[in-house]
Amino acid sequence: MIIPTLNEAENLGATLRRLKEQPSALTYEVIVSDGGSTDGTPDLARRLGARVITGTRGRARQMNAGARCAEGETFYFLHADTLPPPDWLELLSDGTNDLPGSFRLRFAGQERLPWLRWYSFFTRFDVDAFRFGDQSLWVTRRDFLAVGGFPDDWQLLEDNHMVRQLRRHRGGFRILPANVVTSPRKYQRYGFVYTQLVYTLLYSLYRLGTGQRRLGRIYRLLLE
To answer: In the predicted model, what is the mean pLDDT of the chain?
Structure first.
């Protein structure tokens, strides 16, 4: 389990407590890869039993650092504001299939937000345009290394890139039949329509070959 963080003290506690609640007898390690938090995130993670490493800010770089430190033969990448399903470990540890995979998505409180329900519905389909890091990612060490890990210098869409690389490498990808629950904070801050239009613009430019510097400038201009 590898969780990249940057000032996530408000959300990380609930995620780490959820991990402890899983009913499986299987063992696992939790690595919090921090990018320089100033809100006490590393101390919180240590109190809740996680191993903390610190390094240069950048989610792709932080996840790669976590993978280098991990001892297991499988990696599970999870965002700090995302809760996996209660039986996450048993679902991921199914020995009959070692294809990389992710869960479907739900947003916290989406029952009151029809647009978010609509968006999350489509994450059950095996389409690259609906595969992003907030759905988490399970991958074997062998496959992760075979595709070169996350691109260290990417600021955006490194998760989608990884899924596409893994699908090409393995010839398939799994959408597990359960939901992670993630925070809709960006949508709440900017509104669903505006936020989704920006995400669609960024994804379209990325698929057309736009470089990371330009994508980063657009993201900072429109969503920060």
So the answer is: 93
Dist CA 37 CA 2 (whole Å) = 16
Closest CA to 77 of 141, 17, 123, 124: 141
Q: What is the rounded distance in angstroms from the CA atom of residue 21 to the CA atom of residue 16?
A: 9
Question: DSSP letter at 154?
Answer: -
Q: What residues contact 18, with CB distance under 8 A and at least 6 apart?
A: 83, 84, 86
Q: For residues 61 and 153, give the distance between their C-alpha atoms in angstroms, rounded to a whole number.
A: 7
Give 84-100 pLDDT, tens digit per residue.
998 898 888 876 789 99
Q: Which DSSP state fits 128?
A: G
Model's pTM, two decimal places?
A: 0.94
Q: What is the pLDDT of residue 173?
A: 95
Q: What is the CA radius of gyration of the chain?
A: 17
